[in-house]
């Protein structure tokens, strides 16, 4: 009788548990692209990033932001205001925010989306934010948001990000939405 009383709850659990669980009936995954390249980001205390932060007064740029995401948006807006894009004159600079800014300011270099993305990415890195460069046919950046617990896409060329129901979207979400 004791054994029966002990087995009764186990039997009930075995019957009840599958009713409340999710069962996968079919699963189709695409091929996951991987790279053999080792990925690493520059440390935010790199001398060039520290110089960028100090020279451009980036602490003051983000000071009005109350949240991490607001600070990211302020950095994106700042990056967009640094020059006007245009076809000429144009010299393709190194992937260095300070050089990009110097060419734009001193020589009216009319850089395009790649330089806006590099500038924005490096300003984020100088502030200790994780950021990565993305080429989706248009050069943009993705920044890790602790608030949203995801990478969020930022387009500094057009000074915008993408949202759905008030939440910023990441690169994979945008790719899936475009399909």
Topology:
Elements: H1 2-20, H2 47-55, H3 58-62, H4 68-80, H5 97-107, H6 113-126, E1 131-135, E2 139-145, E3 150-155, E4 160-161, E5 163-164, E6 167-168, H7 171-178
Antiparallel strand pairs: 1-2, 2-3, 3-4, 5-6
Protein described:
With 179 residues, the protein is an alpha+beta fold. The protein is 44% helix and 13% strand. The chain has 7 helices and 6 strands. It has a 4-stranded antiparallel sheet with strand order 1-2-3-4, with helices on one face. Helix 2 crosses helix 6. The chain is globular. The N and C termini lie far apart (61 Å). The mean pLDDT is 82.
Biggest sheet statistics: 4 strands, antiparallel
* Share of helical residues: 40-55%
Instruction: Please work out how many helical segments DSSP would assign.
Output: 7
List the secondary-structure elements in sequence, H or E. HHHHHHEEEEEEH
Overall morphology: globular
Mean pLDDT: 82
Q: Tell me the fraction of residues in β-strands, as a range.
A: 5-15%
Class from helix and strand fractions: alpha+beta
- Give the strand order of the largest sheet, numbering strands 1, 2, ... along the chain: 1-2-3-4
Q: Report how far apart the termini are.
A: 61 Å
Radius of gyration: 24 Å
Task: Write down how many β-strands occur, each being a DSSP E stretch of 2 or more residues.
Answer: 6
Low-confidence stretches: none
């Amino acid at each position: 009788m004791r054994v029966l009383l002990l087995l009764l709850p186990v039997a009930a659990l075995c019957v009840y548990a599958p009713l409340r669980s999710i069962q996968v009936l079919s699963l189709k995954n695409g091929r996951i692209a991987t790279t053999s390249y080792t990925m690493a980001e520059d440390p935010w205390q790199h001398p060039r990033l520290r110089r960028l932060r100090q020279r451009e007064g980036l602490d003051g740029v983000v000071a009005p932001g109350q949240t991490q995401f607001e600070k990211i948006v302020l950095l994106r807006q700042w990056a967009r205001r640094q020059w006007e894009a245009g076809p000429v004159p144009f010299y393709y600079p190194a992937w260095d925010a300070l050089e990009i800014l110097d060419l734009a300011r001193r020589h009216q270099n009319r850089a395009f989306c790649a330089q806006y993305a590099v500038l924005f990415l490096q300003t984020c890195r100088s502030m200790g934010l994780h950021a990565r460069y993305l080429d989706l046919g248009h050069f943009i950046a993705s920044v890790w948001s602790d608030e949203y617990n995801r990478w969020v896409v930022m387009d500094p060329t057009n000074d915008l990000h993408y949202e759905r129901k008030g939440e910023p979207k990441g690169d994979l979400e945008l790719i899936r939405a475009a399909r």
